[in-house]
């Protein structure tokens, strides 16, 4: 066993499962955004959309927006304290999208349910005390470890 393998195992052992699950959900959202963006681009460029420019712009926008949850997921896996903010923002942005999907009279309703469940589950995992501690985030009034 090399020292590189040992280091990786130690990192995984020190990371709470809740943090790993939160990272996986954020990555899943990022991959879904990339897939949706690529689909919109393909349809916009190769299909017969009502407005080709809007389809292409929408596809590019989704791909760019995917960077936020993907970078957050990477940061969560590496236990970087900065990563929780973008991950929380992603979940907060997902809730109105889920609500709009749930208001549709179409096959979008199951997608809205899944998105809402993922967003709420991610938020719960991200504000969990074990996650906060693993990321080294201190609460209000604890920035100096009790020194005043």
Characterize the structure shown.
By secondary structure, the protein is mainly α. Helices cover 76% and strands 0% of the residues. It has 7 helices and no strands. The protein is elongated, with a radius of gyration of 19 Å. The model is unreliable at 1-10 (pLDDT under 50).
What gyration radius follows from the Cα positions, in whole Å?
19 Å
Helix tally?
A: 7
How would you classify the helix and strand content by structural class? mainly alpha
Low-pLDDT runs: 1-10
Helix fraction by DSSP (H/I, runs of at least 4): over 70%
Order of helices and strands: HHHHHHH
User: What kind of sheet is the major sheet?
Assistant: none
Spatial separation of the terminal alpha carbons: 47 Å
**How would you sum up the global shape?**
elongated
Q: What is the typical, i.e. mean, pLDDT?
A: 85
What is the total tally of β strands?
0
Strand proportion: under 5%
Features:
single chain; 148 residues; mainly alpha; 7 helices; elongated
């Amino acid at each position: 066993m090399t020292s590189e393998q040992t280091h990786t195992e130690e990192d995984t052992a020190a990371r709470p499962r809740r943090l790993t699950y939160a990272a996986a959900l954020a990555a899943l959202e990022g991959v879904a955004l990339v897939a949706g963006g690529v689909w919109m681009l393909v349809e916009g460029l190769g299909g017969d959309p009502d407005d080709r420019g809007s389809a292409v712009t929408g596809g590019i926008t989704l791909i760019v927006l995917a960077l936020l949850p993907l970078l957050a997921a990477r940061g969560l896996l590496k236990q970087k304290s900065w990563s929780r903010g973008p991950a929380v923002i992603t979940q907060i942005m997902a809730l109105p999208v889920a609500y709009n999907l749930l208001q549709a009279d179409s096959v979008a309703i199951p997608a809205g349910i899944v998105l809402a469940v993922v967003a709420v589950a991610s938020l719960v995992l991200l504000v969990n005390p074990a996650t906060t501690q693993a990321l080294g985030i201190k609460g209000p009034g604890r920035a100096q470890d009790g020194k005043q």
